[in-house]
Amino acid sequence: MKRSGLSRPPTSQPGRSDAESLLGREREMSELLAGLEDAFSGRGRLFLIAGEPGIGKSRLAGELAARARDRQATVLWGRCWEAGGAPAYWPWVQCLRSYLRGHDPGAVRAYLGGGAADIAQMLPEIEGMVPDLVPPPSVDPESARFRLFDSTTSFLRSAAIVKPLVIVIEDLQAADTPSLLLLRFLVGQLTETRIVLVGTYRDVELTPDHPLTGSISELSREPATRHLALGGLNRPDVGLLIQQKAQVSPSAGLVSEVHRQTKGNPLFVGEAITLLAAEGKLADGADVASLRLAIPSAVRDVIQKRLHHL
Q1: Using an 8 Å Cβ cutoff, are 60 and 306 in contact?
Q2: Better-predicted residue by pLDDT, 5 or 112
Q3: Lowest mean pLDDT among 17-31, 38-52, 141-155
Q4: Greatest CA span in the chain, whole angstroms?
Q5: Closest Cα partner for 123 from 112, 110, 132?
Q6: Considering the entire predicted model, what is its pTM?
Q7: Which residues sit opposite 50 in a β-bridge?
Q8: Which residues, other chains included, contact 107 with Cβ-Cβ below 8 Å and sequence gap of 6+?
Q9: How far is 241 from 118, CA to CA, in rounded Å?
Q10: For 69, 193, 245, 299, which has the most beta carbons within 10 A of its beta carbon?
Q11: How many angstroms separate the CA atoms of 203 and 49, rounded?
Q12: DSSP letters of the chain?
């Protein structure tokens, strides 16, 4: 029986089920949806979503993925591994593996075409899908890498003809250099495809000599590239977030204090509200003037990770 062609991101990824998924991000979502419309018309796009941890990059990408699935696009999701030890091209392996598992093997073989042997070097599962697979010719490493990039791009372009593709790669700041090179190669051929690429990264972790810094500079020169830099929520949106999460109508003083101490970071706001609710400090009579937010464990983890990189 043929399985569905819609590859969903892991269940931990945010989607439209989150009530606050678009809170304060209407402009950015409008740009993403316009890019999705362009891709359906054969004009591919790359969106680079930047911001600090907890700012809502994944949630925004998840909302786009949900909208794309509603329109019968295929969604592929990969995440770069920060702890080390992952094989080269790991986020791409996740995306391609998801596609292979979610589609009819005969259709996959047709999309692979003559590049099956090249891609099999990155994705060994292909060897079991293509009978009598002939190994690629022995060439120098740079030529072999070019063949891999060209075959992978051809495969994705062919697949997108049948159903548009939305490919989300998270945490690009942790990507290996080969993965970034493949991204640059693919983006250079996006303009006449039905593919939307979304890459998220923590801009606070970039330094002048970081591999992603140079890649962003190169990607920015491509006509398909768009940048979305996420900042903290404004005061009214923080008030709405408190109302959604705590089911209360917060006072203006409480909203101002939470906004001041969290800088509008949605993760920090959510953790702070959970803590204040547990301590009974969301009541109308709470002393806002003396309010001091402790550091919740989730926020502490973010801070420790940032200090580790420094």
Answers
A1: no
A2: 112
A3: 17-31
A4: 75
A5: 112
A6: 0.86
A7: 201, 229
A8: 162
A9: 48
A10: 193
A11: 9
A12: -PPPS-PPPPTTS--TTSTTTTTT-HHHHHHHHHHHHHHHTT--EEEEEE--TTSSHHHHHHHHHHHHHHTT-EEEEEE--SSS-PPTTHHHHHHHHHHHHHS-HHHHHHHHGGGHHHHHTT-TTHHHHSTTPPPPPP--HHHHHHHHHHHHHHHHHHHHHHS-EEEEEE-GGG--HHHHHHHHHHHTT-TTSSEEEEEEE-GGG--TT-HHHHHHHHHHTSTTEEEEE-----HHHHHHHHHHHH-S---HHHHHHHHHHHTT-HHHHHHHHHHHHHTT--STT--GGG------HHHHHHHHHHHHH-
Are 48 and 221 a contacting pair, CB within 8 Å?
no
Q: Which two tokens stand for residue 64?
A: 């786009």
Mean pLDDT of the residues in the chain: 86
* Cα–Cα distance, 43 to 29 (Å, whole number): 18
- Write b or e for each residue in 208-243: b if 16 or more Cβ atoms lie within 10 A of its Cβ, otherwise e: eeebbeebbeebeeeebbbebebebbeeebbbebbe
- Name the token pair of 153: 């791009």
What does the pLDDT read at residue 1? 35
| Type of residue found at 97 | R
Mean pLDDT of 147-176: 97
Instruction: Report d(CA 258, CA 242) in Å as an integer.
Output: 9
Instruction: Extract the tokens encoding 103.
Output: 């589609």
Position 21 scores a pLDDT of 54
- Does position 178 have pLDDT exceeding 70, yes or no? yes
The percent of residues above 90 in pLDDT, for the chain, comes to: 66
d(Cα 170, Cα 172) in Å, to the nearest integer?
A: 6
Residue 19, pLDDT above cutoff 50: no
Amino acid of residue 196:
V
